[in-house]
Amino acid sequence: MMHTVELLAPAGSREAFLGALSAGADAVYLAGQKFGARAYAGNFTEEELIVSLREAHLLGRKIYLTVNTLTREEELPELTDFVARMYEQGLDGVIVQDLGVISALRKRCPGLLLHASTQLSVTGAESVRFLKDLGVCRVVPARELSLKEMKQLKEEGGIEVEAFIHGAMCYCYSGRCLMSGFLGGRSGNRGRCAGTCRLPYRVLDPEGRPAGTDAGKKEYYPISMKDMSVLDILPDLMDAGIDSFKIEGRMKKPEYAAGVTSVYRRYIDYFYKWDREGRKSPWRVKKEDGAWLTSLYIRTEIGTGYYYQDKGRDMLTIGLPGYAGADPAILEEVRKRYLSGLPKLGIKGRAFLYEGQEAVLEVEYDKIRASARGIPVSAAQKRPVTEAEIRDRLSKTGDTLFVFDSLQVSCGDGIFIPNGALNALRRDALSALEEAILTERIRKTKEEAEPQTERNDFARASCPGGIYKEGDGMPLPVYVSAVTQAQADAAAGAGCSVLIADASPDIQRPAGFKGAFFRALPSVFRIKDRRRMTDFMKGCDGLMVRTLEQLEFIREAGFEGQVLADASIYQWNGESAACLDAYADARVLSWELDRRDLKNLLDKGSQKNIMMVYGRVPLMVSEGCLKKTENVCSGREEGFWKLLDRKNKQFPCRTVCSFCYNVIYNSLPLSLHQYLQDPAVTGCDAMLISLTTEDAGESRRILKAFMQPAEAGEGGRSFPLTEYTNGHFRKGVL
To answer: Do 444 and 484 fall within a single domain?
Structure first.
């Protein structure tokens, strides 16, 4: 028998929640006033959330709370207290990005279902095993996965999989985008994405010339993705065994949430009928249904995402990508149909009213029973109350979610009971039934939520001794990350402690280099890359890892060198640091934290702390490719292209052809040369200099500026660049 898929709808407001349930959602995901990845949605007060939980559970639906933002140390107690209160109210699960939040909630609410957000960019079964060890029972994989990869992850991971089926798409791997934060101070990892991928840009080739197909255009949108809609391929997703179909859209109108949910509800139900009947006819989607969907939220075009497509121009809007409105007639139709109130539960009732005895009302729903007793029934002094009048009064269920399908009334002749007493009898009986239903469903939820795995605590077998050597004249040991052989040679010549060679080009250990030689693994780990990962583990002293897949892969492979967790594996609090203690020897501190947050982290966990003091911060890691968008992709010739924005700022884009992804860097390099005596820097164990677009000469000058002793005089260290940024060091992101 085919499994039943869950239809999961967004609710950015109370009205959207009501509409989604009325339209047939099996579950709804929503956020409180804090800690959700859509801070600008209406979201829910705690009182609204408690009421919504009661309503959802009465209807047999579920609510998942999104607490999928990166969380500062001082915020963690407030978050866990809030979730614990909701857990006591029967919360069905939480969607989480921060590893520290996962760990803290596992301790505080051991029976709570933990779902790993798409912002963790899960791309393989390795990270699934990592997350299962933390107590996660469901993952929302990266939207960049093909359907084949999704099926393989499901089969290998042995975990519930929740996949997006409709709504907006990000150009960057979710959770890996820092562009909004660095350009405007609004972090997507804190729920405040400014949508920088929807802005106009021009694509420039490595020589700075307008490139490819769009070279003659003044303005277009090369990193704005089409919205997703999968109605045409819905049977393929059903056959893949995906557990939950997720609709994107907590920032959109209530009519959107209800309208989209209603269409997918109808086609999912139709699929089961179509399947039972042997799939005798081809799968077809009515044109009017497709048109209805696009009328709810009009962008330029829609596609089916990455399920059957692998990057390219056809996945992008290219033309004007902004929201272009909605059809008012369609919105009004949705409002009338789904936003006028929640569906009712049909119940059975039996009333007993006899002179001298207490009035009794028994009610039943789905084999759950409750009853109430009222005042004694008296003999009528004037006109007796009739059976029809009693039934009419008890049937007025008002604003409750109940309606009587049947109501039997047994009563004597010549009796009397006040209308107020009948109203109270009905209220008490329905209230008792409501509590009985909620008690039963909360009990079942907690039974189902008992964790099926135990935390796999282990001590990583690492190399003895330190992972760097002190250098002459340096305040701290220096790591240097290089993407070219010329940069690597310059770093070796400057006497760096650790040289980190990027995995994509064939960078060799420089002749005579005495320090530790690391390799930096790719920014993206896909199933197809597993064999190559094994190759990178040979002939080096350590690895810099960028993803959870890589952490788990090298652990399972028995890698015995040193492990450095890059800043892309976010650690914003002590709990997240402790999660990685068994996996890594050192960590690069997050690019989005300010000096106060950084100092708070220095004594958390057992890892050595490394601060990036110079380098271009990767703002986006994308499956999309600028060269392929411009129809000039050859699959070779890795290098740096550029995005030119409206303010004439150029953002270098590294086309990593050997692994087929792009990294878009900040227009200015980060440099903390003025803050090398700040406690947030001096409290670290090492400094990191990351070289990207610099040639050999620039690399030598930058290395000299950081590795020479501070010059005397008020000016401090000399620095060869006039344009740079301090990033978030002085002021963190919102």
So the answer is: no
**Where a domain ends, among 295, 315, 338?**
338
pTM (global) more than 0.70: yes
Do both 566 and 524 map to the same domain?
A: yes
The verdict on 304 and 236 lying in the same domain is yes
Sheet containing 358-365: order of strands: 368-376, 358-365, 345-353, 402-411
In a domain, 406, yes or no: yes
Rg (CA), the chain: 30
Give yes or no: residues 297 and 354 share one domain: no
Q: pLDDT tens digits for 425-460?
A: 999 999 999 999 999 887 766 666 554 444 444 343
Judge whether 334 and 392 are in contact, CB under 8 Å. Answer: no
Q: What would the pLDDT profile of 293-352 be if each residue is shown by its tens digit?
A: 888 876 667 889 999 998 889 999 888 766 667 888 999 999 999 998 899 999 999 999
Q: How far apart are CA 426 and CA 403, in angstroms?
A: 12
Q: Where are the beta strands (DSSP E) in 205-335?
A: 221-225, 227-229, 244-247, 302-303, 316-318
Beta-carbon count within 10 A of 422 CB: 23
DSSP reduced 3-state for 691? coil
Please, which residues have CB within 8 angstroms of residue 406's CB and are 6 or more apart in sequence? 348, 349
16 and 65 co-located in one domain:
yes
Residue 393: give the domain boundaries. Answer: 345-448
